[in-house]
Design brief:
two-stranded parallel sheet; 7 helices; 4 strands; transferase; transferase activity; Sugar transferase; Bact_transf
């Protein structure tokens, strides 16, 4: 079953975001719960050039994270992404995994290797979670007896 939420504006969520060069565009996403179809529904923004596959999170105009000294410049020089370093590291509780710091780290060190690593992790995480759920026993590995 497709878990699409219906809001006051229908199944589509529309919100203004700031892109490359500070240009504001309207980001359209499916309102989904269980499945991450909202990311797939954003692919037309990649084709149009509003988003990249990997990059910092697209912020709303006036977001305070974009107003920090230095952040305004690199945010305007990079195309925001469908996924990014902050998104693939979001499950970690490490203190340096603050999304703003991870976006800044990506901006300072972005290149082909980091781009591909983030993209691979973005694909691997949902697949790993799906495989855990599909395993008998609710995703836990039973303890195997040792034979000596």
């Amino acid at each position: 079953m497709l878990a699409v939420r219906r809001g006051p504006d229908g199944v589509w969520d529309r919100s203004p975001r700031t892109g490359l060069g500070g240009r504001v565009f309207t980001l359209r996403s499916l309102r989904t719960r269980r499945l991450r179809l909202d990311l797939l529904s954003r692919l037309p923004h990649v084709v149009r050039g509003d988003l990249s596959l990997v990059g910092p999170a697209p912020l709303t105009p006036g977001d305070p994270r974009a107003a920090c000294p230095g952040a305004r410049q690199w945010r305007q020089e990079l195309r925001p992404g469908l996924t990014g370093l902050a998104q693939v590291r979001s499950g970690s509780a490490m203190p340096w995994d603050d999304p703003a710091l991870l976006d800044q780290h990506y901006a300072e060190h972005h290149g082909v290797v980091l781009y591909l690593a983030v993209l691979a992790e973005a694909v691997r995480n949902p697949l790993r979670a799906a495989l855990r759920k599909a395993r008998p026993g609710g995703g836990t590995d039973p303890v195997q007896p040792r034979h000596t």
